[in-house]
Amino acid sequence: MDTIYALASGQGKAGVAVLRLSGPDAHRACHALAGRLPPLRQMSLAILRDRKGDVLDQALVAIFPDKQSFTGEPVTELHLHGSPAVVSAVMREISEQGLARLALPGEFTRRALENGQLDLTEVEGLADLIQAETEAQRKQALKVMSGALGDKVNRWREALVHGMALIAASIDFADEELPAEIVAEARRIFEEVRTELSAEIDGIFAAERIRDGFLVAILGRPNAGKSTLLNALAGREAAITSDIAGTTRDVIEVRMDIAGLPVTMLDTAGLREGGDEIERIGIERALIRAADADLRIVLVDDRGLPPGLQLAEDDLVLRSKSDLEGSSDGISGKTGQGISELLDHVATRLVSAASQAGSASNDRHRFAMSGAKTALESALLELEHGEERTEFLSEHLRQAARHLDELIGKVDVEDMLDDIFRNFCLGK
Fold it and tell me: What is the predicted pLDDT for the residue at 265?
């Protein structure tokens, strides 16, 4: 492979900028710039010079051998002073000397995958970790990146291989009476894996919400205090408030962090009958978004429930504008009454939902595991037919194992790699 380089730290001015090189000539590039190689896996102070001998920078340098680096290849890291001019000068010298080429987005991580340093689920966990904004997202991403899902997949696959070996025995020794315990043991193995797959699939929705954010919709009649409540929750003037009915025409979204969870709070158009065409479109959009929400906060006043809204069992119905009524009950976005209690309630509900999350976290995981589960269910059906269907049974088991291999990137992943890695930065 070519030797590649890229800035592994953020763009712009900084105290330190990390420049990473990976590939067969990474150590040679280090020697060309620093005049020597530091001890393996140790930071060493070095003067970096260009071909004319002029000083480029004073940097900390480290080299890593193949099989003991992030990419699995020889790696050099140059910890430069974080001036854009310094970084540009060093990168230009690397390029002009032909020591390495600029890496493509995600190319370092892709090489780590191809060299067996990471499996595909760990790559996806790393991508989620880079994007994490809340504590829950960080923990979820670390769980995936640490190999939790890959470990489960390997355990499931080993169980299937053991079950396939038992079935193979029934094929090889078909003329002999196969002990009933072997069939019972194979059935137990397959049912156990199927159960675990089902549990992991069920947890994907919660994991997706942790990664992408929970949706909380605020609903009510016009002038019920929805926008004022949103501003109070956001701590800023995110929505225009007015005594004029129908001020909010579209869905206003505010991203928040509640109990370490990413939450998108939705302020919707006031629900009422009539109104002009634009307002009716806003009401239609409000009802559509509300249907997808994980939690709906319904504000009511003396006018009662808003028209066109069917309450769900888990909707949170609150009396609005308690400051005008002089009531100790209800909520007021203007005075802050009931806001902390509302946030506590929302946090409790969403934390409970998030607790259902497993290690799998996206549609690719769901499709692969669902395919494995379907193949296993077919295998269990074939198992009921006895020895005459063992070849079909074995094929279903191979299909299940293949789906699991796809999950961790062992087979048939080329079509999805470009899509996954294009979301990485150059330094990853």
Answer: 86
Note whether residue 419 is domain-resident. Answer: no
Q: What is the DSSP string of 176-203?
A: SPPPHHHHHHHHHHHHHHHHHHHHHHHT
243 pLDDT exceeds 50? no
Which pLDDT does position 242 carry in this prediction?
45
> For the residues 357-384, what does the mean pLDDT come to?
89
The residue out of 312, 335, 354 marking a domain boundary is: 354
d(CA 227, CA 358): 35
Task: Give the CATH number of the domain where residue 154 resides.
Answer: 1.20.120.430
Residues 287 and 298: their CA atoms lie apart, in Å, by 12
CA dihedral 80, 85, 88, 93 (to 10 degrees): -80
Residues 270 and 388 in one domain: no
| pLDDT on residue 42 | 86
User: Are 107 and 51 members of one domain?
Assistant: yes
Q: Catalogue the E-assigned strands of 314-419.
A: 316-319
What is the mean predicted confidence (pLDDT) over 134-139? 88
Domain containing residue 215: 211-354
Least Cα distance to 286 among 304, 303, 272 occurs for 272
> Residue 418's pLDDT band (boundaries 50, 70, 90)?
low
CATH of the domain at 236: 3.40.50.300
Alpha helices in 47-179 (DSSP H): 84-96, 107-114, 120-131, 135-145, 148-172
Give the Cβ contact number of residue 30 at 10 Å: 26
Reply yes or no on whether the pLDDT at 194 is more than 70: yes
Q: Which residues pair with 63 in a beta bridge?
A: 40, 76
418 domain-assigned = no
Asked if 289 and 308 touch (Cβ cutoff 8 Å), the reply is no
Among candidates 100, 104, 47, 59, which has minimal Cα distance to 83?
59
Which among 426, 427, 382 is positioned nearest to 187, based on CA atoms? 382
- The three-state secondary structure class of 47 is strand
Claim to verify: residue 8 and residue 102 sit in the same structural domain? yes
